[in-house]
Amino acid sequence: MGEINWTWGPRRWTDARGHDFFVVRPPDDRRLRGCLIGGAIGDALGANTENLPMEVVYERHGPAGVTDLPAKPDITDDTQMTLFTFEAVIRSHVRARLTGRADLTDVTQNAYQRWLHTQKTPWDKARGPSTLDEPDGWLVSHADLFRRRAPGLTCTSALQEYARTGAQATITKPVNNSKGCGGAMRVAPVALADHDPAVVFALAADNAALTHGHPSGYLSAGVFAVLVHQLLRGRGLLAALDVAVPPLVRCEGHEEVLAGIDQAVELAALRDPSVARVEQLGRGGVGDTALAIALYSALVTDDPNHALLISVNHGGDSDSTASMCGNLVGALHGVDRIRPDWVERVQFRDVIDRMVADWAVETGPAAPMAQEWFTRYPPS
Ligand SMILES: [Mg+2]
User: Fold this and answer.
1) CA count, 13 A, side-chain hemisphere, 183
2) What is the CB neighbour count within 10 angstroms for residue 159?
3) Fewer Cβ atoms within 10 A, N terminus or C terminus of the chain?
4) Would you write out the chain's pLDDT as a tens digit for each of its 380 residues?
């Protein structure tokens, strides 16, 4: 799969920031499917070893650590929230078609309130200012989503705060001072929301700031979404970094994220990946180190399956680092390069495939105008 010759889409909108933007879907879906399915596989690979020291991982899994998906590969909050992000991107595209305004961050806030509801918060305590009697749309109708799989406390409490106050958190009005990786690990689909990488950076940072108020929490999300944006267009990872770093360094508080990127690139250039080298980058619990570990793992090998195993075998937040690595290597190499038995087995594969197909329909030449579609993807 070489460089993709990008074609401009048929529509032009103005978003909430006053930017004109084009929405264009990739000419084939193998990279987008790879990105989302790869993320879910990474999440499931790390789900049972999150924050366990490697000595314990070796005891449980043998001297090579985690080498395969468990028999029942369950995803966690990382994939759940990524699916709600993707849903928000689709719904905001529907909104733009109907009203001329995408309002992605507002639509995403509502999506995350629905995710909060799946985490055992009653709807009347999760919905915030919404007047809906029930959460709407197709995604939340999946009973399998209604499972608490180690949801991040920062995300949960920030969304509960929004439900109580109705005040949306922003970069300038932060909800907390958290630099946790929960902002970055969910934003891969924001890559689809605009043609311009600088706009994608800003949208992803705004997304993460809904729950994470420290620059390392939201700027890592900006970088990550731009990397995905570039990889989906057929660029290599280093070329993608050349696009993602300039908007980062223009932002106040970018130093930790930039240091993590630099360290990941330097370590990857040494080849010979090891647990010790991954752990040199940190524990992945915060946005800057999660990005660094995902990036290192994707850079140090040309095999996406090997990259996933590198990104999951360390003593830190292994499901988030592997989920982010899976997003990167899936977009870089395409779904065909990921182990078929993993693709076959991972939870929510059918939901991902359906949403990718729906995105193609929504952004295609004959976008639906039927009520059924607006019930599936309400424009809010
Ligand atoms: Mg998780």
Assistant:
1) 38
2) 26
3) N
4) 444 433 333 344 454 555 544 455 555 799 999 999 999 999 999 999 999 999 999 999 999 999 999 988 999 999 999 999 999 999 999 999 999 999 999 999 999 999 999 999 999 999 999 999 999 999 999 999 999 988 889 999 999 999 999 999 999 999 999 999 999 999 999 999 999 999 999 999 999 999 999 999 999 999 999 999 999 999 999 999 999 999 999 999 999 999 999 999 999 999 999 999 999 999 999 999 999 999 999 999 999 999 999 999 999 999 999 999 999 999 999 999 999 999 999 999 999 999 999 999 999 989 999 999 999 999 99
In whole angstroms, give the CA distance from residue 338 to residue 315: 24
In the chain, where do the E strands start and end? 12-14, 20-22
* pTM of the predicted protein model: 0.94
Which CATH number fits the domain that encloses residue 199?
1.10.4080.10
What is the CA(330)–ligand 1 centre distance, in A?
19
Q: Which domain holds residue 172?
A: 13-146+154-376
Distance 249 CA to ligand 1 centre (A): 28
